[in-house]
Each structure stands twice: as C-alpha cells, then as structure tokens.
Amino acid sequence: MKSLLAACTVLFVAVLPAPTFANPYEMQLANGLRVIVKEDNRAPTAVHMVWYRAGSMDEKDGTSGVAHVLEHLMFKGTKNLKSGEFNKLVAEAGGRDNAFTSRDFTAYFQIVPKAALPEMMKLEADRMTNLKLDAKEFAAEIKVVMEERRLRTDDNPHGLVYEALNSAMFQAHPYRRPIIGWMDDLENMSWQDARDWYRKWYAPNNAYVVVAGDVDHREIFRLAKKYYGPAKAHALPERKPQNEPEQKGIRRVSVKAPAKLPYLAMAWKAPRLEDVNKDRDPYALNVLASVLDGHDASRFSKNLVRGTRVAQSAGAGYDGTLRGEASFIVDGQPAEGKTIVELEAALRAEIKRIQDEGVSTEELTRVKTQSIAAQIYKRDSLMAQAMEIGGTEAAGQSWRDIDTLLEKLKSVTAEEVQAVAKKYFTDDTLTIAVLDPQALEPGQPKKPSGAVRH
Amino acid sequence: MRTLIVLALSALTSSLALAGVKIDHWIAPTGAKVYFIETRVLPILDVQIDFAAGGVFAPAGKSGVAGLTQGLLEAGAGDMDEEKIAGRLVDIGARLSGGADSDRASIRVRTLSNKTEREAALELLRAVASAPTFPQSVLEREKGRSIAAIREAETRPDAIAAKRFAAAIYPGHPYGDSPSVDSVTAITREDLVAFHRQHYGAKGAIVSIIGDVSRAEAEAIAMHLTEALPAGGAALVPPAVKLPQRETIKLPHPAVQSHIHIGLPAIRRSDADYFPLLVGNYTLGGGGFVSRLMKEVREKRGYAYSVYSYFSPRKLEGPFEIGLQTKRDQVGDALKVVDEVLTDYIAKGPTAKELAAAKKNMVDGQALRMDSNAKLLGYLSAIGFYDLPLSYLDDFPARVNAVTAAQVKAAFARHVKAENLVTVVVAAD
Questions:
Q1: What is the pLDDT, as a whole number, of residue B21?
Q2: Alpha-carbon distance values, B232 to A208, B193, B228, B237, B382 (Å)
Q3: C-alpha closest to that of A148 among B321, B262, B256
Q4: Region A43-59: what's the mean pLDDT?
Q5: Residue A231, pLDDT above cutoff 60
Q6: How far apart are CA B198 and CA B200, in angstroms?
Q7: B90 and A369 in contact (C-beta within 8 Å)?
Q8: What is d(CA B96, CA B48) in angstroms, rounded to the nearest whole number?
C-alpha cells in the first residue's frame, strides 16, 4: 500500500503545475474585472465563464429567487441584440451555453471551438452592461421559473426536505432562503425587481472571467481589455454579515410528500474555510466526510448499506469553501423494513465510533489517494478545470490556493479527524429534517382512478 | 525539475485535434473487437468492455436481470469479495463504472497509467468481467434495494411517465419492459450466472482503449482482458419491433405539474436515415434554446422549464420522444402547441436558414464532443458496438453537410407517423 502511494506522489509532483508556475495567468482591468486564463492545448476548444459575486444570499426577504430570475433574463435582449439572439449566436458558432445560480454567485458559460472565443467575450461584455429588461419578457420568463420550481422542489420530496432543512437550521443567515425562491415571492416579483438586481450587482468590479482551453493568455488579456474594458465600475451595495446566532438545541422538522421511502437529513453547524494556510478544522472535516462517504470502500457504504443493511442509501458532505455559513450534512434512506429511527441511530453510531476510536492510517491514505487521483482526472475536462478555478474564487480564495488546498488535505492527521468529530457533532447545533412519506391513493385530489384513454 | 516538465507539456501539440484522431482497430486472438487511441498528454488510461448484454435479452418475466448481472460484477470475483474489490480500487485511485441499457452492458475503468496502478486496475477489470461470483447474500441485498427503488419510483411522476411511455410504445416487446417488483423477486443467482455465461463472451465483446499506452501494450491489454471471459452463447436476435397505434394515456398523480411524453419507436442505428433525422431533430427540439419546441413552448409562452425532442437509435428501432413538464391546468394548451409544432415540422421540414444553422452548430461543434479522453472513449465503444466505420468521426462533417431539407422531410415522414404516436400524461386532470 505504502509503495503505491509513494509512486503516486512522485508521479503527480512531476505532472501537476506547481503553485509557483505561471499557468493559470491572471490580470486585472482598470475597472476591477479580473481575468484568469488556464492554457490547455489538448483540443481546439475553450470554455469562457463570467462569474458574478452575487447569489441568493445577497437577496432580501420578499424578492427571494431574483438572482436566479435575472440569470434567466440575461438570455433576453440587450441594446445591441434581440431577445434569443445570444443563444442563436452561440449555437451558430458550434458552441453550447448555459448559466447557473448558487447561494454565493451567478455564473455564465460558453463552451466553443476556440475560434469563436472573441465573439463570446464580446457577447458577455455586452450583456454585462447593456441588458434590456421589460414587463413582457419578464412575464413569460417568470412562468418558466415557476415551472422550474415545480419540477425541482414542489414535486420533488427530497427537494422539499432540503428546503425545510435550510430554513430550519438558519434563522438569521440568508442561506435559509431557497435559491429558486419561495413560490409566493416569484408570484409577486416584478420586472423592476430584476432590473434593480442587475443594476446593483452586475458590474466589472463584482465579476471575474475564467477562460480555459487552447488559448494564448496574452491574446485573451488583449481581448478582455477590448471588450470588457469599457464597462464602468460602480459602487456595490453594502454586504452585511448576517451571521447566524449560536444554535442552542436540536431542531427537528418534517415534510409530508408522496413517496414510499422515508428520507432523513441531519445538518450540524461547521466552520467555513477562512484562512487557507492557518485553518485546520475545515481540512479535517473534509477528510472526515470522505472517510464516511468519499468512495466505494468508505464507512457508510461498507457498514450501513452493505454491512448491517440498515440503509438503502447513505451520504455525508461538507463544503467549507463558501461565502456564508458552513454545515456538515449526513443523509440517507432506510432500507425496506427499517425505520427512520433505526437509520438515525446507525448514522449517529458511525460518528460516535470516530469520536471514540478515531480513523485508521489506511483510511487516511485512501482519502489522500482519492484526492490526488481526482486532481489528475480533472485535467481530462476543460469545464472541470474552469469550474475549479471559478468555484475557489467565488468562495473568496484564490486559484493560487488550489494546490495548497490539496497539500493541506494531505497533511490532516488521524488525531485531527477525531478531534473535529468530537468538536462539531453535538446535538445543540444539529438540525434534522425528515420526509414523512404519504401513500399516493388518499392524496389523489382529482378524478381518474385508472388509466383513461382516448 | 517541475518547471522543465511542465514546459515540455505545454510544448506538445494538440493531440486530440479535430481532424486526425487516429483510431486503431484489430481483432484480438480471443475474437474480441478492439478500438484504440494512443494519447500521451495525460498520465491516464481508460478501458471499456461492451457486451450485447442489455435488457432486451432478459428471459420472459425476469426483467432486471441485465442490470443486476452488470451491477453485481463488483460484488465478488475470483477469490475477492466485494470489500476487497472496493478496497483495492480505492487504494490505487482507480474508478470502476458501467451500466446496462436496452442493448448493451458496459464496464469501464479509469486509472493512472503508471505501471503499478495500471496493472492493478486492469487485473481488477479482468476479474470482475471474467470471474464474477454473484454471492447469494449480496444478490438478496441488491434485489431488496432494487425493489425498494422500484416502489419509490412508482410514486414519482417522472418515473411513472417514463415507464408507462416505454411500455406503451413497445407493446409486447422487451424494449418496453421495465424491472418490476415481481420480475426482480423472481430473479435467482442461477439466472445471473446463466446471463453472464451467455452474454459476456469474448467473441462479440468490444474493447475500447484510450490513453497513455502504446499499440503493443494495448494489444496485450485487450488479450489479457478477454482471454478468461466465458465462452458465450450464440448471438440472440430480439423479436421485431411492432409500431403502436395512436393513443393518449392519462394517469393520475397528485403532483402540481404534469409530465408528458410523446413518441414512438423510430430508428435503428444502422438506418440510412440516421443523419437526416439527427440533423432534422436539431431544429425541432434537439438544439436546446434555439429549437422550435423551446421557442414556442418555453420562450414565447412560459409553459415549461424543459422541453425537448430526441431520437435514440438502438440495434432495433429506438425511440423518438418529445418530453416536457407543465402546470397541470395548462396541459391542454401545451399539448396543442407541441402538436402544432410537430405537425408543421413533419409537413414542411426545416427552412433553408434553419437547416444551415443546424449544420453549422453540429459541424463546428464537433470539436466539443471530442475534446477529452472520456468523450472519445464513448465514440470508440459506439463505433465498435454499432459497427460504424472507423472513419466515422472524420466523415461526420461531410455526412451532416450532405443532408438536404427534402431528406429531413422524407425521413420524418417515414419514421414519425402521426398514426403511431403515443402520448402519456401523468398527473392529468
């Protein structure tokens, strides 16, 4: 085992770009926009992304979901383009495009043959400042967003549980609001709400561009100056911390929805990564999540799904690289014939065992091997590389920290993993949300009892 | 040292360049067909083995046997139990994956190409493909998990709609079967052993290899992976697909949104109309935001978040399908729009402008579909499994550009007939 890891380590040091090496490259325009370029010439393609540091956490009560609604509206017209032209031009260039909104940011991307890159930069720069919003476009698009909410949340029992979990665990912090927004807020949103959001947050000094692909960074910097340079910086709204007060006691919520299997999600408050070099606990929590559920041989799969067979599925996750409050989430479905109470006890017992007995050297080694391999495999995907850069930046770290993050993860000791298991997994900071499955038949509101054909 | 090596890397030319991806092909002494691309930029290797071992070959009443056989390959092999297999994979950072669809079962491994890791990973792949033990106890557990998942799916409008749609467009044909509580309950260990023995033979297996190995190494890998496979039975031919009669099926569900599928069995992968339908569907509902369905249903009217159409060619007639979800009280309006779009498109085909735009996206965008080892591995296995020419990727632009509007119209008329279209609506009023 040891010799294998040694072989890996040598291999990777040789292949991974060192932190000091110049690729990726970064520059900043006078208007504050930062441009990060990762050169990768394996194929004649490129990914172009614009990340705005404005997500659902920056919204106010009453207009939840507006960050995401604006994301949809960014594909409508600008002063220079008719509605729908953006998608059309990307498609004609042989490209694909989309966008996504998170709690922390909103990001837009195009994946294109490299020759189309200048046009993509021109298009993104255009809609950074020239978006045209009106009541008519808004009226159709808000309906689309409501359909999206029905699909993702209202008819999705696990989506409902996740929404309930967040709104129970956070009372002050804006993570309590769903990214897609409450349906009532969507129904009462106006096109001016979206316009106000755009005016406030869409500015070069609140954005960064990530380009990955078969490009020369000097050429990208030149194009960035040309297209993004004219955008004017403006003052951003004040961001209040909105820190969550200390939780003092367990919280439990339940959601009834049509389903067969119950579902359980447990969330403990956890620290976020603040200082890449000095912090230790976030790295140890990452390793803990991986020991529990990082791979096929991790404890949840081995002990709960395959071993005692108490779980149909079981997972653990921790993300400390975010702007807001972090949490450590454990979830699962009981196997048929088992109850949610038995599942909760089994999940808790796995954490207790680590609190009492710690983790083995073999387990630590496995976590490290996985993360090293993942770094290499990531290089087979341009999008994965661009996402890694963009995501790290969104959380307030730098792409320059990416290798440090990996090194720090590798430096975590068994004692540190046991220590964070003891420190953060107390009932006082725990929120539990469960799905209470409802049989379909009694819930039928409407007439037909069987298949009706015509 | 680091700097030198990285500089050397960046000096490499585009080895996954669009034109000139070189695919090697040979028949291994075991009878397996091998497809290989050598690319040394990344220190990784991907290997996939495909078998004609999909759900279509399940014995009557045993739907689910193909998925369970594939899924349980990792449940024990040779003298290793499932924990040993999982542990070894994790220790070398390798990833084993795969699945079974209607036609084929696949198993693939991604590993570091360094000799130690590579050899260990390939040894595991060989063991699980050739010598699975299908332990009774693991089978019982996985049957239980499958049944629980089936019961759960029976509560979900999306899953209910997909299952009913498949059954309705393939009446009496195994393409229409989905695993049920009864069929999974009926599956025994002997069924898995027999299915593996029959369908996982070397003759007919496709081995796809891409990455950091030489041709000589690839030859040895293909041989090693297939020499211990079971003898395999004679290739089975599934029954012919019969077209369904036009009908609308409505199923109750309390969801706030209805799930709608419209379609029919449409095209074999070997059909000469493949390119006209592929190009033609881009304009109808395959081209994302620029398709007619997206414009009419979503952009103009806000009826749906997702609306699409696709052809999914198989060995036999694979489905054509239009799908969308919409608030339940506007199902009638949404269906009317979809019907108008489809009817108009079948009658008139694409405009010259639409056809040109479709071709431009598909030809210029080909690079995007080939820019990683993982994507190219998918092409290798498809070329092998569906007997496509080795020049498939090189020919693609010319084949797309050769399509005419008249061909699109004629192909839709042949393959998407109104009298055979089935509509399934779940959560219908």
A1: 85
A2: 56, 12, 11, 15, 21
A3: B256
A4: 97
A5: yes
A6: 6
A7: yes
A8: 10
Whether omega before A24 lies within 30 degrees of 0, making that bond cis, reads yes
Is A2's Cβ below 8 Å from some Cβ in B? no
Q: Is residue A221 located within the same domain as residue A246?
A: no
Q: Return the active site residues of A.
A: 71
CATH hierarchy code of domain B247-426: 3.30.830.10
Q: Are residues A251 and A145 in the same domain?
A: no
Give me the pLDDT at residue A38, please.
97
Residue A444 lies in a domain: no
- A14 belongs to a structural domain: no
Judgement on whether residues A267 and A404 belong to the same structural domain of the protein: yes
CB distance A4–B361 less than 8 Å?
no
Instruction: For A231-263, give one letter per residue: b (16+ CB within 10 A) or e.
Output: beeeeeeeeeeeebeebeeebeeebebbbbbbb
Interface pTM (ipTM) of the complex?
A: 0.93
Number of domains, chain A: 2
Q: Which of A3, A42, A447 is the closest to B41 by Cβ? A: A42
**Residue B338 pLDDT greater than 80, yes or no:** yes
Q: How far is the alpha carbon of A266 from chain B, nearest alpha carbon, in Å?
A: 21
Task: Please give the residue of chain B at the shortest CA–CA distance from A370.
Answer: B93
Q: Which amino acid is at A110?
A: Q
Confidence band of B242 (pLDDT split at 50, 70, 90): very high
Q: What is the mean pLDDT of chain A?
A: 92
CB contact under 8 A, B302 and A41: no
Paired tokens of B421: 């279209």
- Both A157 and A261 in a single domain? no
User: Over pLDDT 90: what percentage of chain A?
Assistant: 92
Q: Is B188 on the interface with A (CB under 8 A)?
A: no
Residue closest to B85 by CA, chosen among B128, B52, B56: B128
- Position B16 confidence tier, pLDDT thresholds 50, 70, 90: low
Tell me which chain A residues have a C-beta less than 8 angstroms from the C-beta of B120.
4
> Is B21-226 CATH 3.30.830.10?
yes
At A17 the pLDDT is: 37
Average pLDDT over residues A169-184: 98
- Is A199 in CB contact (< 8 Å) with chain B? no
| Angle of helix B115-130 versus helix B82-92 axis, rounded to 10 | 150
Same domain for A292 and A187: no
Given a cut of 70, whether residue B293 has pLDDT beyond it is yes
What average pLDDT does the segment B48-71 reach? Answer: 97
Question: In this predicted structure, what is the pLDDT of residue B20?
Answer: 63
Are residues A270 and A122 part of one domain? no
- Residue A26: strand pairing partners: A36
A6 touches chain B (CB under 8 A): no
The predicted structure's pLDDT at residue B339:
98
- Decide if B228 touches A, using CB distance below 8 A: no
Q: What is the CATH number of the domain that holds A167?
A: 3.30.830.10
Indicate whether A92 and A218 sit together in one domain. Answer: yes
Say how far residue A396 (Cα) sits from the centre of its chain. Answer: 14
Q: Where are the domains of chain B?
A: 21-226, 247-426
Could you read off the pLDDT of A254-288 as tens digits, one per residue?
999 999 999 999 999 999 999 999 999 999 999 99
Cα distances (angstroms) measured from residue B198 to each of A7, A306, B192: 40, 28, 10
The helix/strand/coil state of A378 is: helix
Residues A150 and B327 sit within 8 Å (Cβ to Cβ): yes
Are A257 and A222 in a shared domain? no
When pLDDT is averaged across residues A131-150 and rounded to a whole number, the result is 96
How does DSSP assign A284-300, residue by residue? HHHHHHHHHHSSTTSHI
Q: Strand (E) positions, B234-306?
A: 247-251, 257-267
- Identical fold for domains B21-226 and B247-426, yes or no, is yes
pLDDT of residue A22: 66
Q: Which two tokens stand for residue A117?
A: 């890159």
Please report, to the nearest 10 degrees, the dihedral formed by the alpha carbons of residues A168, A170, A172, A175 taken in order: -120
For residue B386, CA distances in Å to B206, B269, B314 come to: 10, 7, 8
Domain span holding position A365: 4-9+242-438
